[in-house]
Amino acid sequence: MKINKTFGTTLVCVTHDLNSAVLNADSIIALRDGRIVFTGSPDEIMDEKILEEIYSKKFSFANHPVTGQKLIVPDKVE
């Protein structure tokens, strides 16, 4: 992120780690089956209804202890 702020260069990062994305990105694009299904801010994507629509599953959340950012927590193993 230092390169982005210092040089004003746009960086693109492709990841499957949504928590990492919301902690580091200014904007997020989500794909499903090769198609864009979401564009918006990290705060906007961490919405239960939006994530359920993208991934066809429910998620549990907790807030990051330092930043307060909403994050996905692992499913309970039964």
Describe this structure in words.
It is a single chain. With 78 residues, this protein is of the alpha+beta class. It has one domain (2-73). It contains four helices and four strands; from the N terminus they run ααββααββ. The strands form two sheets. A two-stranded antiparallel ribbon has the order 1-2. The longest helix has 8 residues, at 48-55. It is globular, with a radius of gyration of 14 Å. The N and C termini lie far apart (39 Å). The model has no long low-confidence stretch (mean pLDDT 91).
Instruction: Report the count of strand segments.
Output: 4
Please describe the biggest sheet, giving its number of strands, its sense, and whether it closes into a barrel.
2 strands, antiparallel
* Unreliable parts: none
Give the fraction of residues assigned to helices: 25-40%
Q: Please, how many helices?
A: 4
Strand content is 15-25%
Terminal CA distance reads 39 Å
What shape does the CA trace take? Answer: globular
Main sheet: which strands, in order across?
1-2
